[in-house]
Each structure stands twice: as C-alpha cells, then as structure tokens.
Amino acid sequence: MYREALWEEGNQSYEGEFILLGVADRPRLEMLLFGLVLMCYTMTLLGNTTIIVVSRLDPHLHTPMYFFLTNLSFLDLCFTTSLGPWMLVSFWKKNKSISYGGCVAELYISLALGSTECVLLAVMAYDRYAAVCHPLRYTTIMSHSLCFKMAAIAWLFGSGNSLVHTVMTLRLPRCRENRIDNFFCEVPALIKLACVDTSFNEALLVGFSAVFLIVPLGLIMVSYSYVVVAVLRIRSAEGRQKAFSTCASHLIVVSLFYGTATFSYVQPASNYSRDQGKMVSLFYTFVVTMLNPLIYTLRNKEVHKALSRLTKRT
Description:
The chain is mostly helical.
C-alpha cells in the first residue's frame, strides 16, 4: 500500500514542470557562463556546418572518412542545438522552469546523440585501421553499403540506449520534487530527484555506460595498436607523418569525448558534488563539440585544399 501511494504521489509531478537550478544563486557566474556558452555554440554551428558543406560539395572528399566525419559533425550540431538555445534563454530568465515535455525531449535527444557518437567514434577508428593497414583493399573493405550500415547501426544503438534510460529514469517516483540541480535534464541529475532507492537505476546507468564507453574505447585502442605497427613499417618519413597526422585528430577527439563522458556516467550519480557534474556536462556539451571541427580542419590539409577550391569557385 505504501509503495502504491508513493508511486501515485510521484506521478503527480509528472504533469507539472521542472526547475533547472543551474547557477541561479550566482548571477555573475551565470552571465559569464552565458558568454562562454554563446561563443562555443556559435563556433560549433559555424565549424560543423562548414565541414558538412565542404564534404558534400567537394568530390575529393567523397570518401568513407569524410562520410563518417559528416555524420559526426551533424551529431554535434544536433546535440548542442538540443540543449544550447534553451539554456541561453534560461540564463536571462528569472523563472528557470522547463515543461515536462521539454525535459523529456532534452533527456532523450541528448542521450541518444551522445550514445550514437560513442559508437560512431569506434566506427571511425575501424575506418582508419582499414585505410592504413589495408590501403590496397581499402575501397573494397569500406564500400558505400558497409559505411551506411555502420552509421545506421551507430544511430540505432544510440537511440535504443537512450530509450531505455529515459523510460527507467522517468518511472522513478519523485514525491513532488522537481528542482534539477543542473543546466539541463540529464540522467544523473534526474536520478537524484527520486525519493526511493535508486541503486538499480544507478547500476543500470553504469552498466550501459560501460558498454557504450569502455567497449568502443577498447576497440579504438585495438584498432590503433594495429595502425601504429603499420605506420612504423612505412619507410617514407613523409608517409609516416601523414598517417600519424590523420589518426592524431581522431585520437584527440576520442580522448576529449570519452574522458568527460566516462567521468559523468561511469560512476554512481550519488557520488557527484554539487558543481562537479554541472561543469563536466557543460564541457562535453559545448567545449568538446566546438573543438571537434577545429581539430579536424586545423590538422587536415585535404580540408584546407577543399576550402581553397570552393573559395575560388565562388
């Protein structure tokens, strides 16, 4: 009887709204974060849109590597857009509320895109393995159909993972508690609102996060161990430098993304300090997505040449 009453009481808050606390108690910090988020979001839009447009318009970039890079840029665009505009508006609002539907949308979309990126980065590592270790058979191995299938699997797995966590998190009774100590709706922050034992949900989160973070990261490390061996066998210093330069960009992105995501999700939500989770969430939501296109374009001569060709055409 008690559990049923608790469930009904928790369900009453489902139809209301959530309050995103963020750093509303520190107005100066809030304004500083507004400027930083606006700058990062603007650069993310410009950088990722540029990569998508250049990759589609320049025939020289119609390769598996740039197909997956376009997917990654589109992911980052959608990821930041699912959270950025509302967050920027809320920085200026006294009322930090968000509707239940808006919170569910933020939760599902951001987690789905983040999970998809985990798998996609592993797929990109396999693409680099095929390019460096099997250059003569590369176009045969990485056929158009295989590329589309691998990208589709990444999107499907990401969506499925997000659906499981969204449903399990929203089913937790909150006993009228609706104040989220974060800038947006995220699984760890929502789990902390529950008024029941959340051990199972935390274990589920850590378990699924381990599968989506640690397993792909392990596959990436295995792929690059073969890549390093293959590169060291290249006699030409220029050839080795080109191979390492191409792979280095991907490894930097992997380090930034997996480092912050692992810190956020592969630990119980109860272990978070008050501001720790917030700052890490901001970092991988805006800073990492801003740096991705910069890392790939600044270190990539093919993108520089493509930009030059498109500039001359226009």
